[in-house]
Amino acid sequence: MTAATPRLSRLPRRPAVPPRASGFRLTRLRRTVRLGIKSLWLHRLRSMLTALGIVFGVCSVIAMLAIGEGASHEAQEQIKNLGSQNIILRSVKPSEERKVTDKANQSYVLEYGLTTADLKRIKETIPGVTVVVPARVMREYVWNISRQVDCDIIGTVPWYPSMRNHRVAGGRFFTEAEMDERASVCVIGAEMLEKLFPLEPAIGNHVRVGNNYYRVIGVMETRGKATKVEETENVKSSAPNRMFIPLETARIRYGEVLGKQRQGTFEAERVALHEVTVKVATPDQVIPVADAIKNVMERNHKKKDYDMVVPLELLKRAERTKQIFNIVLGSIAAISLLVGGIGIMNIMLASVTERTREIGIRRALGARRRDIIVQFLIETVMLAGAGGLLGVALGVAIPHFVSRFAGMVTIVTFWSPIVAFSISALVGVIFGIYPAIRAAQMDPVEALRHE
Amino acid sequence: MSPPIVQLLDVHKTYQKGPVTVQALRGVSLTFNEGEYVSIMGPSGCGKSTMLNLLGCLDRPTSGQYLLGPDDVSQMDDDALSAVRGARLGFIFQSYNLIQQLTVVENIEIPLYYQDWPEAECREVAVELARLVGLEDRLDHKPFELSGGQQQRVAIARALVNDPLVILADEPTGNLDSTSGAEILEVFDELNALGKTLILVTHDDDVARHSHRTIRLRDGRLESDTRR
């Protein structure tokens, strides 16, 4: 016997009662997982490329959902700012009218829009209407000594802030008494506060508009960006700053005719009210009241020189849009995950063929069919799960960067990563089952003979 | 005389190979006793491989009985056969059949693994066996890092790990050079001396000469059964 030859003095004997791992076959599961990692690691590049399909699927689902959620959240916030129980009417300059004035008479005073009669009719004839807020909007420069701000001056009623969910940040809004006595008081927007009063306190000071002075009595809270819904309607040139004065004060200061100097020509408009906000008692009355107002307005206006915005309707429309968006997203997600799953199945089938010999060996050494199934299934699920995890990480990161660099609001809902990950694991199971069964169905004799 | 450990009673095996029905075994009856060292020989196509597959519980006879120890394994279902293979049989193949991504120790452990042994015990027994076959300094090597002789010794350790009733070897020296082959055969002799039952398929007379009993098959039938 050579030196290299072993000396078999004693052999391990089977214990009378073979030791058994306790617990729910945890030992085996842990080993199978470890084995799976080893097998996947053996073909690192292949595993990675295979998982990539799932990565992109999961990541795109989460990212798109986040961006969509962000966009719809923003839209809904804006609509809510308008007040879901409100109906907003605005004066709109009829387009054909403008041509006539341009060609014919330069000094013609254009008359259009909402009138006090409309206001009265709505208030008195339509049931369900609780509060009506009229407003006039004048665009002017507001001055504090030498500081100047381009501003929309809004003549309105004292209860405007509560109606439009716009709160007073400092000081107070003007009162009914002040409106009745046509007091020269104003409430300025927070945005213009710094420009007009960078050093001295604003409240108690005066601002000049044209030849009139107004005492500042309050400051409104910041409204963020001018709401998109408002911008799309008519007032495209709406100034970023807003100053509020009592409606009656505005009426005596500006009269009915508003003059505008534009590129040398003088244009005059007679607009009684620029905006009327109607508040309805309960949300379910909004739609019928809106219809009633529409009827009243159509009967009394020959031309469509007004525009009606129903935030509740916009809200519902936004929700429907979101639903459609989600369905489209869902389909894209389903397709991309399906493609990813097919990729995984393809690779696993190849892997099963490639590892026929290994399967044969394991079967010969005591592995049951289900052991083989579990082994391959775990491998597939790990592959899909790893892809899913990576996809979740990317999918959470991408919206973050989109928010930072593109300035879009994105919201990753807490459930979207969970759902996306579970689906990816499920894809692993569904597309792993067939290759695993194929592996288990192999005849051990044939498998051992396989080259 | 030691008790019979393997009993084949009028075993037939037929299978379909395309359109042809092959009668691989046509009524073989044999008895092997505990501690025997048997070689099975015969020209190719005589049914050696079929016989080994049946003995190894990788296949079931078409008719006839196969008693392994006290149990009739000829009618067991797939799961039960897997359990029998894992617990009572040891396999040694011509091409070693080690799993390439596993280390030496892990390869040795496989049969215990499918019997749900706790990890610590598996490792202990596997390391002990690796030491017995002279591979204690190769425990964490992969099969491709070993020579053919070393790989076959890993396979022997794996065949011993579950303390099998019978060790089945299919041309164990077929892929080895004569020196390594001789070493493996010496290991077999030692195993037999320790009371292990060995059944060896070969067509090498020199290999068969190590055994105490040679069975020759021809056309699916027993041709001769010689004891030395």
* Name of the CATH homologous superfamily of chain B: P-loop containing nucleotide triphosphate hydrolases
- Give the strand line-up of the largest sheet of chain A: 3-4-9-6-8-7
Helix content class of chain A: 40-55%
Numbering strands along the chain, what is their spatial order in the largest sheet of chain B?
6-7-8-3-9-10
Rounded mean pLDDT of chain B is 90
CATH-derived architecture of chain B:
3-Layer(aba) Sandwich
The total domain count of chain A is 2
SS field, number of helical segments of chain B: 7
The amount of beta strand of chain A, in percent, is 15-25%
Largest beta-sheet characterization of chain B: 6 strands, mixed
Largest interface in this structure: A-B, 43 and 48 residues
**Form type of chain A:** elongated
Q: Report low-confidence residues of chain B grouped into runs of 5 or more.
A: none
What is the general shape of chain B?
globular
- Helix % of chain B is 25-40%
- Strand tally of chain B is 10
Domain count of chain B: the total is: 1
**Largest sheet of chain A, if any?**
6 strands, mixed, barrel
Question: What does it look like?
Answer:
- The complex is a heterodimer of chains A (451) and B (228).
- By secondary structure, chain A is of the alpha+beta class.
- Chain A has two domains: 27-75 and 318-449, no CATH class; 86-281, no CATH class.
- Chain A has 15 helices and 13 strands.
- In chain A, strands 3-4-9-6-8-7 form a six-stranded mixed barrel. A three-stranded mixed β-sheet of chain A has the order 2-11-10, covered by helices on one side.
- In chain A, a hairpin with a 2-residue loop joins β7 and β8 (212-220).
- In chain A, α2 (44-82) runs antiparallel to α11.
- Chain A is elongated and about 110 Å long.
- Residues 1-6 and 225-237 of chain A have low confidence and may be disordered.
- In chain B, α3 crosses α4 and α5 (148-160) packs parallel to α6 (178-193).
- In chain B, a hairpin with a 2-residue loop joins β9 and β10 (221-227).
- Chain B has one domain (32-60, 77-227): P-loop containing nucleotide triphosphate hydrolases (Rossmann fold, 3-Layer(aba) Sandwich).
- Chain B has 228 residues and is α/β, with parallel strands linked by helices.
- In chain B, strands 6-7-8-3-9-10 form a six-stranded mixed β-sheet, with helices on both faces.
- The relative contact order of chain B is 0.20.
- Chain B is globular and about 45 Å long.
- Chain B has helices at 48-55, 78-88, 104-113, 119-132, 148-160, 178-193, 205-208, and strands at 4-17, 20-33, 37-41, 63-68, 71-72, 89-92, 166-170, 197-201, 213-218, 221-227.
- Chain B contains seven helices and ten strands.
- At the A-B interface, α1, α12, α13 and α15 of A face α2, α3, α4, α5 and α6 of B.
